[in-house]
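User: Predict structure, ligand cobalt (II) ion.
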Amino acid sequence: MTATTRPTKPIEGQKPGTSGLRKKTRVFMQPGYLENFVQAIFDAIGGGAGKTFVLGGDGRFFGAEAAQIILKMAAANGAARVIVGRDALLSTPAASHLIRLRGTDGGFIMSASHNPGGPDEDFGLKFNTTNGGPAPEAVTDAIFAASGKLSQIHISDAADIDLSRLGEVDLDGMVVEVVDPVADYAALMESLFDFAALKSLFAGGFRMRYDAMNAITGPYATEIIQNRLEAPAGTVVNATPLPDFGGLHPDPNPTWAKALMDEMMGPDAPDFGAASDGDGDRNMVVGRGIYVSPSDSLAVLAANAHLAPGYSAGLKGIARSMPTSTAADRVAEALGIPAYETPTGWKFFGNLLDAGRATICGEESFGTGSDHVREKDGLWAVLLWLNVLAARGQAVAEIMGDHWAKFGRNYYSRHDYEALPVADAQAITDRLRGKLSSLPGTKVAGMEIAMADDFAYADPVDGSVSSNQGLRVVFTDGSRLVVRLSGTGTEGATLRLYLERYADRGFDQDVQQALDPLIQAAEALAGIREISGRTGPDVIT
Ligand code: VG1
Ligand code: CO
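Assistant: Predicted complex:
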């Protein structure tokens, strides 16, 4: 027995954000930093004795070392088994699936998701619970509380485990089971979608470009799209996960997936383009000459999901995060099923999915998913789109045109002001928050305000209440603007301004132009540019 106990002291700031704990990689690499956080997780969940966990990550810098530390700590905390993806790799949705498939007690996902990786960039760790989903707030609060009163950590002195070989090995009495990271996930996708129809689609000359952004979906997309669906080699690009993502910012949006956008808007564009993020839970979808906003993508997928075998029985409900456009609500209404509005972050969908109230969920931040796992799932969304394209025999642009003609169009955009001084971000949100109660009935930029509040969510399943989830201003015509601060950044404060305007005709306007009145209203109400001195947002999606 080589398990040892080492004394430690609490480290400040180990508070999980929207999606796990994210810090600069060098912060995580400080001796004892990761160890403290992992011990806080074990302490918060009642210890590790006799339990089984899943472990994997997106392959970013420090992931391999972190995996060894987590394994040794699981062993010393008494765990019975840890199921690890080969080379410590697992996409976030694949990890969620494994947690559920194997009936485990939870899992550790080593990723900072869409944040860049490398020694000078970001690292992160997320704990998911037995349902496969991100720890709910009660658990993340308990982890933070435990991190504040640590006095010791438990860690084995055993040698590192070779994680490149499949099979089982012993680590101080704990079984380390190394599994193929792709196999179970690929089988799940095959059970949900009409792979025969997708194969014929590619056999018929349908052309696609999937940009894995040198991140975790490369092996998954290559196996599913090129090997199983027989799309030609080269369909999946940037397919090898690299520790620094090849210097790319693995965030699938028109700014960071620019090469894909240029190709899809160019003269020789393929029929369909897609990209995903560092840990594989986000997706961006682009048709030939047409970008699909994530909010629209959620609505279109919800309206057409029944065309895929896994959803042929229809949907139980649709859930979206509050800042996501209300396009999906119109689909829910037409289908006669409930629509739910939750705070930002996938953890809030877990109870609705577990209770069978919602089947499909989505966020404006390029996240879509369903009850097949308890995370958003980038490749799943791409395969559902492919299934819809195959079943309808139409191009993306035609499908979008039909959708808007039927439901109207929710023009939508998000403006991000990144790395603001924290005091500026606070001053902006304080200014708007201070006005909220006096706004209804008044006019700004020529539009009348119907309601304004600081969004709070009461979970309909367990009754828990989450407050301060974003400032929203809703106008009498249904247009909305939302201001909230990011909970995933590692530098200063990132302020997000979400803009939405509904139109029942005129679907070809420039998005930023269509939203101009909202942009003016936001500045008049919150003074973002005035207070920050910035001339405009850093990223527009
Ligand atoms: C952002 C997105 C949110 C998403 C979260 C995690 O959070 O806005 O919708 O769930 O990232 O996504 P924030 O707090 O920065 O706005 V990922 O792909 O990082 O797991
Ligand atoms: Co992600």
